Amino acid sequence: MYTGLTWSCRKMSRRYDSRTTIFSPEGRLYQVEYAMEAIGHAGTCLGILANDGVLLAAERRNIHKLLDEVFFSEKIYKLNEDMACSVAGITSDANVLTNELRLIAQRYLLQYQEPIPCEQLVTALCDIKQAYTQFGGKRPFGVSLLYMGWDKHYGFQLYQSDPSGNYGGWKATCIGNNSAAAVSMLKQDYKEGEMTLSSALALAVKVLNKTMDVSKLSAEKVEIATLTREEGKTRIKVLKQKEVEELIKRHEAEEAKAEKTRKTRSRRRRTNEPITTSLLISVATLYHLVALVLSDNDLKGVDKREQGLSNVHVQADIYG
């Protein structure tokens, strides 16, 4: 009886990471954590919220010269007239979720004759994703999404959701490979209240250039989409390769200029170092000479005082 119970406990302990509905003794759902780990190996995706728009930028890994880009979009999907999303993770899972997002948005538009609010669409999908972590016989979706959109309630918005069904609003964030380094750069360079769409594009190219595992950034490996408002309508635009190349060239020119300035300052610092060192040596030498003179004068004063005291003693002996 005891042996069977022990075997049963060991067998159950091995099932903590094979079933989504069983918590480990530490209170963890390993399958959900494994799904999040899958996102860490996907291409980098980032989003930046600006005063006059929103952008999504993503790394494209599936590059082939025979690929028809008209019928294939690996990273960025249009959901309705006011929203788009970018994905990181398993592409097939992303296709299922984006189709569901489009259906939810179309049903809402058909029923209420107005576009669905951005957060409501994100919440509806996150409810589905959370259900796949709660019921048996299912696995979590191995994909994380970034959403950009506009509605009459909150204007431009940026959201991010993960396989657990959790979501949040962001000013700038990143998912996928090297996301921690990208978020650190966004924290450092994002200027709240001053960020325009053009500066956001420059920042996105800078972050991708630093975080992508490539020797040189190219337009073929980057997909960028912007969402703006023009004449009372939302406009979602996917940048062409020529436009992305212009952004990359501009970034490279700024980097070269900054590097040149850095080298010039370093050269000036090296040139000034010998002068500063010689001045320090001269001041130190002068200080040492002054100290010697002062000490010599002090010694002479001591000798004179001692000589005076000896004369007094001699006179005292004579007249004693």
Automatic annotation (TrEMBL):
GO terms, biological process: ubiquitin-dependent protein catabolic process
InterPro entries for the chain: Ntn_hydrolases_N, Proteasome_alpha, Proteasome_alpha-type, Proteasome_asu_N, Proteasome_bsu_CS, Proteasome_sua/b
Superkingdom of source: Eukaryota
Coiled coil regions, renumbered to chain: 237-264
Gene3D superfamilies: Glutamine Phosphoribosylpyrophosphate, subunit 1, domain 1
GO cellular-component term (any): nucleus
Location(s), subcellular: Cytoplasm; Nucleus
Pfam families on file: Proteasome, Proteasome_A_N
Proteasome alpha-type subunits domain residues: 16-38
Matches recorded under SUPFAM superfamilies: N-terminal nucleophile aminohydrolases (Ntn hydrolases)
Keyword Cytoplasm: yes
Keywords of this entry: Coiled coil, Cytoplasm, Nucleus, Proteasome
Function: Component of the 20S core proteasome complex involved in the proteolytic degradation of most intracellular proteins. This complex plays numerous essential roles within the cell by associating with different regulatory particles. Associated with two 19S regulatory particles, forms the 26S proteasome and thus participates in the ATP-dependent degradation of ubiquitinated proteins.
Assembly and interaction partners: The 26S proteasome consists of a 20S proteasome core and two 19S regulatory subunits. The 20S proteasome core is a barrel-shaped complex made of 28 subunits that are arranged in four stacked rings. The two outer rings are each formed by seven alpha subunits, and the two inner rings are formed by seven beta subunits. The proteolytic activity is exerted by three beta-subunits PSMB5, PSMB6 and PSMB7.
Similarity comment: Belongs to the peptidase T1A family.
Protein name as it appears in the record: Proteasome subunit alpha type-4
Source organism (scientific name): Mugilogobius chulae (yellowstripe goby)
